[in-house]
Every structure is written in C-alpha cells, then in structure tokens.
Amino acid sequence: MKITDLVPQKKDPNRVSVFLDGQFAFGLSQQIRFEQKLEIDGEIDQKTVTALVSQDQLNRLVERMLRFLSFRPRSEKEVSDHFLYKAKLKDLTVSEIELATYKKSIGKAIDKLKKLEQLNDTEFVSWWVGQRNRFKPKGVALLKVELLQKGISRELIDNFFEKSSNSSESDLESALRAIDKKLPSFQKLPSTDFKKKVTQFLLRRGFGWDVVNSVIDRTKPKS
C-alpha cells in the first residue's frame, strides 16, 4: 500500500490523518509518524499499519485512563466498561482498522496500568469500604454486593472481610453511625413504631437482623 497523503488534523495538530491508496486509513500521533519516518509516496504493509495503530491507541488509552482514574480510584471492570462503551461510540467515527485495534488495546492498557501500580482491585476494595464506612455506612452483605457489581472477584472480597478485624463488631458500629442522624426523630415515636422504623432503615442498608436488634436494644427510648 502507498501513503498518498499525511494531513494534520484540525482538532489536534499533534495528530495526522494517514491516507493509503487515496483513502483515509487511520489517525496517528505526529511523534510516531516522525519516529517511523512515514512520508508521502512511501510504501507500507498491513502488518506495519496494524502495529502503528496499536502503538498509537495504547499510548492514548493509557493517557485517557490515567485521567479517568484521577477523579477517584476505579476497579478494573469500571475502567474496562467505560472504555468499551467509548469504543461503541466510536463505531461510526473512526476507521475499521482503528476500531479493531482500539478494543484490543483496552486490555493492554489496563495491564500496563496494573504494572505501573495505578490500577489495583485490592486497593480499590479497601478504598470503597472505607468511603462507605465514612460517608454512608452499610452492612457487610450489601458492601459485598456493591463490590461484586464493580467486578471484584468473590475470592478477593471474602479475603478482605476475613482479614478485617471482628466484622460483626464493625457492622454494629457502622449501623450506629448510619442511623445516628435519624435517631432523634425515631426516638420520639411509640416503641412499636420506633422498632419498625429502625428495622426498615437498617435492613435497607444491608445490615443483618442480629445487628438490627443490637441497635434497637442500645438506642430504644427509655419508657
């Protein structure tokens, strides 16, 4: 295939549109273009094209993923799902070559971020549970469901909570913090209504019956 044109992109002059045999083929960073000494009328084979696009996509994905991670820690699945969704949006806006390599490059970019210690599911679990306990306390059962939804393996989740000291005591402390702001209004209710309100509130937060009963015993209004 012959390189018939190299056109700087209007939206990003640091990138160039590469035309092969008279048709747009793919976009590429100017850095890679000059490193590979691509010139108009030069010849290029399909293997080289695929390698260049893969390298370019990987570099851009790592940069974008780091930006995505700068807002808050993420699980591997969150990052993968976000950029796979972006890939779907790209279906009609990039060449077939770019789209195919983009999807393959997502996994490579995630692997690179893991090696750079910028993506770690174990650390994410610790951060997620810490944030929940601090700002919106929930029971261990519900926390496990949330983490599973984030793509964390059941084994990793179980190991984390097994290593946590006295999870039942932690659950009770979390439940007391969770209901703290509601207690003043609940404690004004008749005993039956008080128990009902506390029970419904804590069960919705994923706390077990043993924790619910302990909270009721500790906080019920004195008759």
Automatic annotation (TrEMBL):
The keyword Transport does not apply. One of its GO terms (cellular component) is cytoplasm. Keywords: Cytoplasm. The keyword Cytoplasm applies. It holds the Pfam family RecX_HTH3. Residues 120-158 form the RecX second three-helical domain. It is found in: Cytoplasm. Modulates RecA activity. Belongs to the RecX family. HAMAP family: RecX. This is Regulatory protein RecX. It comes from Candidatus Woykebacteria bacterium RIFCSPHIGHO2_02_FULL_43_16b. The lineage of its organism: Bacteria, Candidatus Woykeibacteriota.
